[in-house]
Specification:
alpha+beta; Uridine Diphospho-n-acetylenolpyruvylglucosamine Reductase, domain 2; Uridine Diphospho-n-acetylenolpyruvylglucosamine Reductase, domain 3; Enolase-like, domain 1; 3 domains; 5-stranded antiparallel sheet; 4-stranded antiparallel sheet; 12 helices; 20% strand; binds flavin-adenine dinucleotide
Length: 327
């Protein structure tokens, strides 16, 4: 499948790149590793006139320990670079595991952190060739006001499959967005929208330049289920963090991924663990609550009944693992 025609811009500095984004407005698309974007371009889901690559901007590739004990990660770091980072593996093992689980080694060599966080949402009806899509009406993602997944929906239900997103929320991380107008920091918990088309709060002309992780607190785990490791996106992911002891947690954060257009914070399940501690009984109750709180499940890539069972099993297993991690 051929790529559509485009002009490739490779600015040497961030300022030059931001100016290019401002000049070309909606005609420009940011490319990092291109491991997802180029496929979408071949499918004609994105046909930018200008492709702006920030790969030459060295300041976006740094891994920098912070004075407060936290860590800052440039959005241009490749997932291989992060998987090989000892400081990341030691201080934030759940994030390290999540990034290491993305695709295969070949994918991770090209893929970047920024691209993973901004990864476009996916849908079985849309992430197909143009010829395939022509056999049915368009949808919110293409040229129509229709969702093939949930016919009565007034918005797109494509799925957010970013492996880093749920665990970044659990770690209380924030992202730095830059444009010609300056920079702003946004907590990852407020970065995503529950809409498969307009799925982040990024504005026209903005780029995600880096991630800030606060000093590590407590324990966290990451769990993922995919049909084929290295090839398939997850059918479900789950990140869990707890501060304090198993008996008396000070705070609990539980987040599901790959179940809808945005990562889903499981507030009811977290409240159960916070109130009762992390033990066999509360884990079972929290897993049932997770299943119940899914609400309208996006029936994509797997039947919704399967996804509900998968959520319960992932939550139960991962919370058991979290309980057994040394305090
Ligand atoms: C075989 C295969 C398996 C895969 N498996 C997984 C998986 O298991 N889990 C997973 O999460 N992903 C998976 N992916 C998708 C993809 O490889 C990763 O999500 C990757 O991290 C995307 O990063 P990238 O740098 O290649 O992004 P790109 O493809 O360059 O960009 C992705 C999107 O993000 C935007 N973008 C990129 N960088 C920035 C930035 N700095 N600021 C703002 N917007 C930006 C682009 O405009 C584009 O919309 C897989 C892909 C393939 C081909």
């Amino acid at each position: 499948m051929q790529l559509p025609e485009f002009e490739y811009l490779r600015p040497k500095t961030l300022a030059e790149g931001l100016a290019a984004l401002a000049e070309h407005g909606p005609d420009a698309t940011i490319m990092s590793g291109g491991s997802d974007l180029l496929i979408n371009m071949k499918f004609r889901l994105d046909t930018p006139k200008y492709l702006v690559s920030f790969n030459a901007v060295q300041e976006m590739k740094a891994i920098e320990p912070q004075a407060d004990g936290g860590l800052s990660l440039g959005a241009g770091c490749t997932l291989t670079q992060l998987a090989e980072s000892e400081v990341l593996a030691e201080k934030y093992p759940a994030l390290h595991q999540a990034l290491f689980s993305v695709g295969s080694k070949h994918v991770r060599n090209a893929a970047t952190l920024g691209g993973n966080i901004c990864l476009d949402t996916r849908c079985w009806y849309t992430n197909q060739s143009e010829n395939w899509r022509e056999t049915r009406d368009g949808c919110f993602k293409t040229d129509n006001e229709l969702c093939h997944v949930i016919k009565s929906a007034d918005k797109c239900h494509a799925i957010n499959s970013s492996d880093s997103a749920p665990v970044l929320i659990v770690l209380d991380a924030s992202v730095t967005l830059a444009s010609v107008n300056g920079t702003r920091d946004v907590p990852v918990s407020e970065f995503y929208n529950n809409d498969g088309v307009d799925h982040t709060v990024m504005r026209q002309g903005e780029i995600l330049v880096g991630v800030t992780l606060p000093p590590p607190k407590g324990r966290s785990v990451y769990a993922k289920l995919a049909q084929r490791d290295g090839l398939d996106f997850a059918s479900g992911t789950f990140a869990a963090g707890i501060v304090g002891s198993n008996e008396k947690p000070e705070s609990v954060c539980l987040v599901m991924g790959s179940v809808g257009p945005e990562p889903k914070v499981l507030a009811d399940s977290a409240a159960i663990i916070k109130a009762s501690g992390l033990n066999e009984e509360s884990i079972e109750t929290a897993a049932l609550a997770a299943r119940a709180s899914l609400g309208e499940v996006t029936n994509l890539f797997t039947p919704s009944g399967y996804k509900r069972r998968l959520v319960k099993a992932l939550v139960k297993d991962a919370l058991g693992e979290l309980r057994d991690l040394q305090v």
